């Protein structure tokens, strides 16, 4: 039987600006190197220094897909961390702190069934003559000792993290870490929920799949998965303006730009960013931009330009809570409708909704092909939770990826008689063969005004109808060929169930964990994940929701917004009203426990 | 690589598109000067890209037989400069009005000149919004009366060449639509300049600007002579500030500086568009996430 709290949940908290996020990443990587599955979730206020930061890491032998509402290990670098998170500690948990600088009510904490492990972080650091910031290394290693993670994995992560600074720095950090690790070991803290033992593959036959030792996996964020997906897809040009929570997309592309021959241009604003992406794409290179809601608002007009000029374009929209500046560093799914309806007029738009890091990678590959072949804008919606959380997964691979295009070659163009080429030729499938500027015999002007087949301005009624229909036809063609119902939605769990949860995007992980626990405890729940909002898999969604309703099952909508925007879309496209809702809109991600509780309530368990 | 195409006749640059400008509009002169410049410089029309924004004059790409992109109001520069990055072998020329370049798109102007892309920017400056039938523009004089400023514009006109110079421009010139031969020379000099060239072309609007007429300009313009040294930044600033009783035409400023494209290692060997996008190996990147 699966329990929501089977996995170990570790969290570090402290003042912003003191490397909390990095500590979370190091702990997650160390555990992944020990072949555990990990999920890491950072929380930080919209401040550079002075606020409260945390980084949570969940670790397990079987897949970890989400954060948790309960912690087993709290690494408290200041008192505030304990004050804020004491209530979130699971029974039997441990608080690791430096008793010389953090004053705690030990009696009260022990009475709550928690253990205390005071490690003189500052003293150990000082004794070894280390810089104050290396207190983090001591603390990280101490926590590893207490959860039972062998030192070699902490050492290996230190080696990777500090390799660039030279052997001396690496060795000194290892020495400092070793001191913290040994001190914590000697404390003999009676913390029982240690990491599950890692067995080698010898007795595999006797264990079920989840018990097997995993291959070592990469630990990656959704943002980086998108950036690497784009690089794999043949990205050549990106223009962007920094904005939380998608900034790391542009940073990751920039980091690899030189080696992969990609220009990443930071622009004066998001308007320039999207217009540059369109300009570069028009010349024939795969291009993208990324922003959050506020920046995407500035891109709206140019989104229509990509549609009208039929220029391929990929935009990443990483949502955070609005309206306006909102909660800049928190998570939300409130931009779905905004993205779908951005820009004036009517035009086809592909909108992908990845739910985890693997889908971030795969769907990025996919939309680059759709954008290129169908000469249209494609959006990828993520959010803070998906974009900045880190997750272990098998290294991405797409050995068979072939860039699709409807661009003709310069050699094709050589054969075209001068004056014959029609950039916006009315074709049966709506896709007009695209010639690139610089090709022989194909001179044309692309225009944001309505235009005729040759690109010249044409306001006639007949031409307008023909061109609107042509652009729409591309969307129909795409749905019958390169984007099928199976791509646009996925049913997780049993085919038939007493309860079907409908969700999209980053709520996937928490929902999966909740239904897995529910089903293993005798309930019958499945999860319909909607993976594309445009085009919308109307028929499939209708069929699957009816399948549950027909057997008197219930429907539950789970979203990270206050209006249930996907619920509205389901109703718009299928007529089905999802009667039950779990909507969270406080800037915090939906957690598995609250989904699980809702399931229990609805099924009256 | 494609063989360069050389035009035999100026008329080869004509298109079948119907021009929708008013008779007497200064845009006709600018268009003629531009075509002559392209023809005389023997630019291959298939290797030339003309980008515009939105405004009366922004129909220009449809009227010259080179590759064209008729973009959004104010956004021609980001579109065009990225085109240059994507294929720096193309001759990229941008054309648009004063509202487009000095009003809604002014942030892009400041940054495009600063970056010094090898792009030529022709601003059709008629000191009024024509396409929306006569409102005040950033270059309209204080007191200019229009339907949007019935009491006269309160703010003084901007000095675009001074703004561009302060932003790091490497080529600045001013020409007048009533003198096509001189304007052609200015456009040619701009295209031949290795770097960002801004050519402010003064263009009477015969329909909506009854103040800045052909006669008004004829009384004020004069051509810069040898007394002006275009490499003298201080002198260029002084000149860029002159507007009113006298209006100088000619090259205000010229400086040799590496272009933005020169600094991009990714395109030092071949244009970005010539890079292969298939079979990209991401394994080295993924290793760093283990």
Topology:
The complex is a heterodimer of chains A (605) and B (290).
Chain A lengths: L7 E8 L4 H14 L3 E7 L8 E9 L10 E6 L2 H7 L3 E9 L8 H6 L3 E4 L2 H7 L7 H13 L3 H12 L4 H21 L30 E4 H11 L2 E6 L6 H14 L2 E4 L3 H14 L2 E6 L1 H17 L3 E7 L16 H6 L8 E3 L4 H18 L2 E7 H5 L1 E4 L16 H5 L30 E3 L13 H21 L3 H4 E4 L6 E6 L3 H13 L4 E6 L1 E3 L3 H13 L3 E6 L5 H10 L5 E4 L8 H11 L3
Parallel strand pairs in A: 1-4, 4-5, 5-6, 8-9, 8-10, 10-11, 11-13, 12-13, 17-18, 17-20, 20-21
Antiparallel strand pairs in A: 1-3, 2-3, 2-14, 7-14, 12-19, 16-18
Helix pairs in contact in A: 1-5, 1-6, 4-5, 5-7, 6-7, 8-9, 8-13, 10-11, 18-21
Chain B lengths: L25 H15 L7 E5 L7 H4 L3 E4 L5 H11 L4 E7 H7 L1 H10 L4 E6 L2 E2 L5 E2 L23 H7 L4 E6 L3 H13 L4 E6 L11 H5 L2 E3 L9 H8 L6 E8 L28 H5 L3
Parallel strand pairs in B: 1-2, 1-3, 3-4, 4-8, 7-8, 9-10
Antiparallel strand pairs in B: 5-6, 7-10
Helix pairs in contact in B: 1-7, 4-5, 6-9
